[in-house]
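Our working data are protein records whose layout never changes between entries. An example says more than a description, so a record of this kind follows.
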Amino acid sequence: MENHVVTIDNRQRISITDISEIDSFDEEEIRASLNDGAMIIRGEKLHIQTLDLAAGRAEIAGVINSLMYVRVREKGDKGFLAKIMK
């Protein structure tokens, strides 16, 4: 596994490496798949400034309120994490 780096600058910009896919996004929540798991970024007026899936990098701007890592479960699994990742 390669290094995964998250840099948050003054809660207004976040840079992420190891991104494999953006699953969903709007101004309040961005769900992203990583090469090993997933993350949910919540905030206000969020927008993706840069997305380079080939390099596995993303930059997001807006007001960053929270960042949460989640485990990705198989589709047949039931539970809280499986529900939030749908």
Q: What stands out?
A: Residues 42 and 66 are 5 Å apart (CA to CA). The first helix runs from residue 80 to 84.
